[in-house]
Fold:
Amino acid sequence: MVVHERDDERPDLSPIQLQASELYEQKQYKSAEQLAHLDLAQQRRGLSTAVALEILGDCATSLGSHRQAASLYLYREGAELIHGHYTRTSRRGTSQQACTTSWEAALRVKQARSLSHGTGTLIEATAMLERCFPHSTNRQRQRQPHALASLESCMLLGSLLQRTERKADAVVEFKFALLKNPYALEAIDQLARLGCNEAALLALVDEGLRDLVKSRLSKSKKEVDGMDEDDEPLIPLVEYSKAHANMYGNQMATALEHFNGLSAVYPTDPYIMMHRANILQEMGHVLESERSYRRLCALDQNWMASMDRYAHLLFQLRMSRKNAFMVRQGGFVHYQYSCHGGRERVHDEAYSIEDELAQLAQELLDLDDRRPEGWVALSLHHLTRDDHDKSLAFVDRAIALCQDHSYSHYLRGSILLSSQRPDHAVVSFYRANDLRKDIPSYEGLVESYLQANKFKEAICSAKEAISSAPRDARAITLVGLALAQAPATNQQEGGGKERAIRALRRAMKLDPGAPRPLFALVDLQAQEGSLASCVELLRNALDGGGKSNDVTDSTVNANHVVTWNMAHKDVIQAKLAEIYTLMESYDSALECYHTAISLNPQNGLASQGLERLEKIMKGLDPDSSMDEGEQQI
Structure:
């Protein structure tokens, strides 16, 4: 509330208005509202009336969502009074719609907030702000913000434009906001999210800093040609901008370096902790990511942002040891989440990740059940129990609370895909990808299209993923997977199995510790009959990936090899046993299965494969539905 501040546009506040403003500042909203009504009842219509209307609008807003309709009416009436007064008295030419004073501009922003919070529509709020703050163009035909546009109006309009799918216009507004104040860190985050590249972002930050210095020095009547040594940024804005630009540009290794640098300077900053944990999780460093999330929770027990991703991580840890590495069955969810290392204490019965996930969901819902994170965690908890119906119901609740929550749409697509509903899954993955063009959403799209036998769409989505992240092994793997599974007619369009093999090998060079290209290449070469090559690939993976390629890309992070290959030797052994079975090297296969089970007794793939192998060695049909005794008879 700003009515107590004196400026040249506002009339002097009446004694009742001053007292109402004081009560409002002391959060006595009902008393302030009653005083303002008494003041309004004895006034004639004029600028003083607009002051009373603003007080009433602020009180209605503060009293709760059920009063939003009242606040909208009050703000609109006050703004129209001010607009009418100054358009009648002003001699200069003014637009019939544009704001005339900063007082009116402040009321229009409040009016737009009321419109966007349920009393109107996002489109109404956006249109009203665009009418009140029209852009102009300079001599270079560049768009300029309205003279009365503030940081608040630019950020609000940018947010509304983004939510109404007008992303190019949203970028313009966020750029104006950053130029007004380079410390508007949310503007940096939103611009990076909307695809603004690193160079453009740094140029905006630099220009904003220079304008800020010039503005401050001009107030003290000093001249400046540029930034002095004493005018260094208060925080490392360049590093901050680079970190976000690379993170949203899917350059995770580079982004992690920048966030590590920021973390060294600000070791207890929760936002830096959160982004580091997210990046580590996406890169596959699950255990290190878990430690970062735990530090964040210890720092602030009421922190909610990205806690749905922490729930996702707990789900990853649960699924990594719960069942087999499901290459051919089990759905995208099981495949995606079993590709990560588990904790060392997996055999401790008193320690249940499933219980931890349930506790996290309960804590998040107790904190705020109007945010999506708690419902996502609850959905994942039911997913660990293979209850897809309840899981889907809770993730739908999360989406209903926040339509723009990208991970909710991603999780919904994963559940639908694992329920053998790929056509429905495509819609959810597409929405998740539209909100944020990250690799997991592309993986979901490609997997859904492949399961729906839409191979052309799968190849196109995979190529789009490479355009988004050309140096990411996961994106290159998607192309290999799509080409490998496409039938002959689509292979001719996309390049065929040879191109698939090249793509998968290139992905392995970029990241030798990535399991997906390894197993995809093994399956593809097994189909081609190159079983000896499959054995070599898997043996090299067991050795740590060092011999799998003659040339290793400089961007490889060796920790990923340790994180996955070393933690999942049982999975590789089980796959190696499967290949030995195809080669009819039954003794070697038997040895590998026993090794896998000794490493992880819960490895379902090894248990099932061992049972199948024993039937083959006894001369029985492993695919028969009859039991062993019936087959012998």
